[in-house]
Amino acid sequence: METQLPDDFRCPISLEIMSDPVILPSGHTFDRVSIQRWLDSGHRTCPITKLPLPEHPCLIPNHALRSLISNYTLVSPSKLQPCPQPQILISSLTSQSSHVGTKLNSLTHLVRLTKHDSGFRRKLTELGAAPGVLKCVDLDDPSLQEKALSLLLNLSLDDDNKVGLVAEGAINRVIKVLRFGSPDCRAIAATIITSLAVVEVNKATIGAYPDAIQALVWLLISGKGREKKEAATALYAICSFADNRRRAVDCGAVPILISLLDSGLERAIEVLGLLVKCKEGREEMMKVNGCVKVLVSVLRNGSSRGVQYGLFTLNCLCNCCERLCFEAINEGVVEICMGLMEEENEKIRRYTSSLVQTLRENHAFG
């Protein structure tokens, strides 16, 4: 049965099949949960070589091995141990007598089973899995919390589950993780917000939660690359609801997004393209020194989608302020627009034409 799987698929510490293989600086691969426990216990040597590790060793995902394990599982299901019944797995999440290792093992099984199987996701929800998963999100163990968040994200992929998860109290848990979780947990929490916000009614509900938008804006400031990108994506998802745009502006999102856009996070222009639709958003953008310069840079160097949002945002601002029209001219926007007129993308041509018309109407150029 499971003993027929290649030995390289097993974690050298737990001897179990790895679900999230990561590489230590020593070059050896371990399951993330196992090596994190080793490090959290104060060890600063490789379990295999016994060589010293840095104070904060980087755990690099071993995507190739993870893919091999996943593909092997799909093509060789008979070589895996049978998975316990869903009811048993769910019970272990809620039982006070279950050890952390038992809960982690149950969550690992459930994450794997729900990743691509929408039918199984619905079945878990019908069996009342949500309270048990949310209870694990509340726990202080980072590995357990990360796995519970991954399962919560999988469950949220089905539209039928999205409203129910919000009603079960998912948002409060996610907001707490956004502020106090590990970097990986914060990134997953932001992704959950994006997933739940697919359903229109959830956009308003999420925005109305105290600190929800504030926590995402805080993550834009304090997070690393993946966290910032996921936070910006979540803001984009919930700010299609008009009231949330004003909330985001009130939380100070505008100058942060412009700064991130200037630093290369193109996802920020998509959020600015929504915030510019409200009066408060436009007013805040006008106050930021160099805003026009950053937007023109997007037109010059951005992707097709970035250019679309950049044109739209700049046009909205220039419509409201003659000073910004002249700033845009000085930054070379006319020459850029002449080139964009030849774009194959119909939206880009249309937005370019609107911006040129706005500049003409404001007498910025003849």
Provide a descriptive summary of the structure in words.
With 366 residues, the chain is mostly helical. It contains 22 helices and three strands. The chain has a three-stranded antiparallel sheet with strand order 2-1-3.
Shape, principal axes of CA atoms: elongated
Cα Rg: 24 Å
Q: Which class of secondary structure composition applies to the elements?
A: mainly alpha
Distance between the termini: 78 Å
Average residue-wise pLDDT: 90
Unreliable residue stretches: none
Please identify the oligomeric state: single chain
Question: Biggest sheet, open or closed, and with what strands and sense?
Answer: 3 strands, antiparallel
Please report which band the strand proportion falls in: under 5%, 5-15%, 15-25%, 25-35%, 35-45% or over 45%.
Answer: under 5%
Structure described in brief:
It is an enzyme of class 2 (transferase). InterPro entries: ARM-like (IPR011989), ARM-type_fold (IPR016024), ARM_PUB (IPR058678), Armadillo (IPR000225), RING-Ubox_PUB (IPR045210), Ubox_domain (IPR003613), Znf_RING/FYVE/PHD (IPR013083). The chain is mostly helical.
List keywords for this structure.
366 residues, mainly alpha, 22 helices, 3 strands, repeat, ubl conjugation pathway
Topology summary:
Blueprint: E1 21-23, E2 29-31, H1 32-40, E3 60-61, H2 63-75, H3 86-94, H4 100-114, H5 118-126, H6 129-137, H7 142-156, H8 159-167, H9 170-180, H10 183-196, H11 200-208, H12 212-222, H13 225-238, H14 242-250, H15 253-262, H16 267-275, H17 279-287, H18 291-301, H19 304-320, H20 322-330, H21 333-340, H22 346-361
Antiparallel strand pairs: 1-2, 1-3
Helix pairs in contact: 3-4, 3-6, 4-7, 6-7, 7-10, 9-10, 9-12, 10-13, 12-13, 13-16, 15-16, 16-19, 18-19, 19-20, 19-22, 21-22
